[in-house]
User: Which sequence fits this backbone?
C-alpha cells in the first residue's frame, strides 16, 4: 500500500469506529488483502462519550499486542472526530510518537478534526484536557463515506463550516446559504458540497499555518469554542460537538449584535441559516450564569484573557476580553425571545 | 521569581519527590514566600516503581485543582529521574503542553534525565512505553542537592557518566578513573566532580542536538540501554536504573571483546572501574536466553534493527545489528567466570 508522502507500508494497525466497521469493514479488509498489507483491526466505539484516556489506552494496548515497529508501520485511524483525536493521541504518546494516518469518515472529521496537529481526550470533566500536537503522516479524504452519515451528524459537521464562514469569510457564508438545504439532501456529494469542503479546509489551514502549536492564543478558529466545551461536557452524548458549537456561536452572534458589531437583519439572516442547517440556537437547560461561569476555564486555557472570537458583519471577527454576565444574559434572552 | 530564559513567575505548582520534600521542602517554601510566588506543593513518591501513568495523572489532577494558567504559570519538577520524566510527561499532555522547569536533585537527574526533551512513564511492562518530547523552559542545576544523596543513588548516576565515557570519549574515561573513588566520597562536589558533570552534560547535548526527537535511531547514547529496560522492568524497585545500565554495558563490553573491538586488558581495566564505582557487572538472575530475548522489543523500538551500541577501545562505539544468542551466552559466561 502506498500512502501519499509516506511510502510503502507492509504492516499496519487499523483503529476503526464500530459503525464504520459495520459499514465499510469488509471493504477495508479486502483492500489490504489485495495489496498484501498485513493488518490487525481494532474496533472501538467512536461516540463522544468514548473520548477518554481509556480509548487511548485501548489503542496503546492494541499497538503493543500487534508488536508494531516504531517508524515503519503506521496506525491508521478510521472514523469521526473522536477516533481522529483519541487514537491520534495514542499515536503521539506510544514510544514518544509513532506515525499515523487520518482517514476521516464524518463531515466533522473531514473539515475539522483531521485538519491540523491536535490530538486529545477529555479528562476529569474537561474537554480535550489531555492531548498533544502530532502531525499525521497523511490525511486521506474520501467524501463517499458521507453517503452513509446520518443527517444529524452531517449538520454537526456543517457547524464547523458555518463557523469559518461567520468568523472569517463572508463569501463562504453566501456559498453556504445558497446551497442549503441541498447539501444536506445530497450529503455534500455535489460540486457545491465539495467546493464548501475544499474552501473550509483551505481556510482552516491558512489560519493554522504559522500557529500549528497555538503559540498565539488569539485564534479566530476558536469561534464557537468558548462556551461549547462546557455545554458539551455537561450533555456529553446528548448534544453533538457541532451542535454545542452552534449554541456557542448563537450566543456570540447575540453579543456581537448587542455590541453593534453586526445588525439585527444580519443576525436574523444568520440564525435562519442555523435553522436551515438543523442547528440549535438555544438550549433551555443552561442559565446565563452557568454559561458565563464556563468562561473561567476558558480564561485559564487562554492564559488569562477571554479571547472570545465575536463575528462582525463584513469581515473577520475580533476578540472580546470583557464579556460580562450582562452580555450573556442579554444574549440568552435575545435567543429565547427574539 | 526569575527563571533563566523564562521571565517573572507569580504562581507555580511544584511537584516534589517526597524524600526531597523532607530534606528541602522548608527551604523551597521559604524561598517562594520570600519572592512572593504563590505556590502549591504536590508531594509524590519518586522511586522507579512510581514511574507510571498514575503518577502523571496525579500531577494532572494537581494542575487542574490548582487552576493553572496555560502558559504563564509553570510546573516546577523537583526530584530524580522519575519525577523529571513522569511529571514532565504531565506537563507535555496537560492542555496539549504547558511550560515546566526541571530541578534535578540526583546525579541521574542532573547528567541524564534533565538533559534533552524526553519525558515518559512505563506502561504495560514496557519501560518508558508512553512519553513525549517536550522541552523544559529551563533546567536549574544545583549540585549541592547531591550532599544528601545516598551513595548507591550516586553510583547509579555515575553509570550514565561511565556510559558516555566508554562509548564516546576516552578522555572522560581517564578522568573518571583518576577521580574514582574520590568523587563518591565527596559526592561530586569537588572541582573534579563538577568537571565530570559538566563534560557529561556537554557530550549528551552534542549527541542530542540535531536529533532531539530521535529521527535517527542510531544513537550512541543508547549504549547500556538495550538489555537494561528488560532487566530493570523485571526487577523494578530492586535494581536502580544506573545499575541496570551497568549490567547492560558489561554485556556489551564482553561482546565487544569477543568481536575484537577492544582487548582483554582494556575490558578488565573497565570492569575494575565498574567495581570501583560500586556498579554490578553481572546479575545471576538473568539467563543468556532471557537477555537475548529482550532484544525483540529493542528491535521494534529501533524500527527493525538491533542498533546495539558497542564500545571500541580508542574511539566512539559502533552499532551492531547481528548480535546472536551465542554472543550473549559468551558474554554472560565471561562476566561470570572471567
Assistant:
Amino acid at each position: 500500500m502506498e500512502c501519499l508522502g509516506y511510502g510503502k507500508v507492509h504492516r499496519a494497525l487499523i483503529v476503526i469506529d464500530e459503525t464504520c466497521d459495520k459499514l465499510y469493514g469488509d471493504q477495508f479488509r479486502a483492500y489490504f488483502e489485495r495489496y498484501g498489507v498485513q493488518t490487525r483491526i481494532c474496533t472501538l466505539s467512536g461516540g463522544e462519550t468514548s473520548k477518554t484516556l481509556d480509548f487511548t489506552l485501548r489503542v496503546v494496548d492494541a499497538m503493543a499486542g500487534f508488536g508494531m515497529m516504531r517508524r515503519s508501520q503506521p496506525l491508521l485511524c478510521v472514523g469521526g472526530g473522536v477516533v481522529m483525536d483519541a487514537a491520534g493521541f495514542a499515536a503521539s504518546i506510544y514510544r514518544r510518537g509513532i506515525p499515523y494516518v487520518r482517514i476521516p469518515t464524518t463531515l466533522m472529521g473531514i473539515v475539522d478534526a483531521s485538519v491540523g496537529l491536535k490530538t486529545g481526550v477529555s479528562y476529569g470533566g474537561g474537554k480535550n484536557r489531555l492531548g498533544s500536537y502530532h502531525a499525521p503522516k497523511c490525511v486521506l479524504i474520501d467524501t463517499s463515506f458521507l453517503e452513509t452519515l446520518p443527517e444529524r451528524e452531517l449538520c454537526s459537521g456543517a457547524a464547523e463550516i458555518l463557523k469559518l464562514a461567520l468568523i472569517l469569510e463572508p463569501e463562504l457564508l453566501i456559498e453556504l446559504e445558497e446551497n442549503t438545504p441541498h447539501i444536506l439532501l445530497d450529503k455534500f456529494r455535489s460540486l457545491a458540497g465539495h467546493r464548501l469542503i475544499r474552501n473550509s479546509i483551505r481556510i482552516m489551514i491558512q489560519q493554522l499555518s504559522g500557529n500549528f502549536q497555538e503559540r498565539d492564543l488569539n485564534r479566530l478558529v476558536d469561534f464557537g469554542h468558548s462556551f461549547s466545551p462546557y455545554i458539551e461536557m455537561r450533555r456529553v452524548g446528548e448534544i453533538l460537538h457541532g451542535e454545542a458549537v452552534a449554541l456557542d456561536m448563537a450566543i456570540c452572534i447575540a453579543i456581537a449584535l448587542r455590541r453593534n458589531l453586526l445588525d439585527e437583519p444580519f443576525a436574523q439572516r444568520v440564525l435562519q441559516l442555523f435553522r436551515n442547517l438543523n442547528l440549535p440556537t438555544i438550549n433551555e437547560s443552561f442559565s446565563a450564569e452557568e454559561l458565563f461561569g464556563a468562561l473561567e476555564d476558558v480564561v485559564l486555557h487562554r492564559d488569562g484573557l477571554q479571547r472570545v472570537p465575536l463575528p462582525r458583519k463584513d469581515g473577520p471577527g475580533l476578540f472580546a476580553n470583557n464579556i460580562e454576565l450582562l452580555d450573556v444574559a442579554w444574549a440568552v434572552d435575545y435567543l429565547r425571545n427574539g
